[in-house]
Amino acid sequence: MADAAPSLSCDALVAALAHGGRVAQSALAGLDDSARAAALAAAAAALRQDEAEILAANAEDCAAGEAAGLTAALLDRLRLDPGRLTAIADAVETVAALPSPLGEVISRDTRPNGLVLERVRIPIGLIGIVYESRPNVTVDAAALCVRAGNAVLLRGGSEAARSNRALHAAFVRGLASAGVPAEAVQLVPTQDRAAVGAMLAAAGLIDMIVPRGGKSLVARVQADARVPVLAHLDGLCHTYVHAAADPAKARSIALDAKLRRTGICGAMETLLVDAAYPDTPALLGALIDAGCALRGDARAQAIDPRIAPAAPEDWDTEYLDAVLSVAVVDGPDDAMAHIAAHGSHHTDAIVTEDAAMAERFLTQVDSAIVMHNASSQFADGGEFGLGAEIGIATGRLHARGPVALEGLTTYKWLVRGDGQIRG
Description:
The protein is of the alpha/beta class.
């Protein structure tokens, strides 16, 4: 489709958008908390009012995606329907109702000389979001940023360009009706990839970049950015079925973790089954019978002839499809070593009735989210009570796991004295 493209170069365009966003952010941060919440409620109402236009735009994107040969998983990420759009608007209302982190006193201390020191949460500033085929990110990111007092510059993927424009138009109309500057939430009006490069180089204008997409997008952002990056890497999620797992729980969890929605980052990509687990044939058979293609090691293949051999790269592949790698492991140490070697530090789970083993797994597995007796598909900001998420950060700095309001703040020190000098 043709861009709604301005005549400016991408560098000049991004600079202009960023300057406008910074001015709007200052105004946004100056509003009281109830005003920001009311603006989000108005934005949710506008999304509901524009349902027909948004779904029509999304239908065009989906038709174009099918013609371009997008996979079923990518089309599922792209597709909106009345239920999904309602859930998006509901999430905005949930974010509006959450307590704001702004102004929270993180710590307070009185020094021996009488100085009173406080660390207080404040907005980060202008946040750039670079994302691919999920139109819901347009709204989730906008809502969270506004609630935390940040302006946001959105650059979505070409597959969802029509959907993003329709969602953005409705959202901003709602904000503006409640007194929030429209420039607080801006959508880059071109799909030229040079615009992404311009955002990554905009040090001093954009305060943080959040990439959401495949490994190649995140790698490019990390390699090229001159702006701090909050990375969301691929979801190589594992489920380990321990020897003491309850068979009914193991089957239910494995089926949901893999097949509920195969195209999300919390979908299980590797199943590790303990060699001492007694119900492995039924577990693997249930997955195959549900339409999942299994690729396994030699011991998994020996259990069911329908399992194809796994290539070395399968253990490092985020399928985002009804395909699953399966390995039989010799106990928890073997399972955790496999996760350490092949995981992406996103979400990993253990199924077991052995409470001590579960605690050991929760403690020793180094992932942003570690679960016991639950589907990895719960790796979602909404399910964590955060309203929505910008992404799931897999690094160690600033924020980890679902990044929501708190992860979109920084802090400053407030020092109150009564004439003290250092002397």
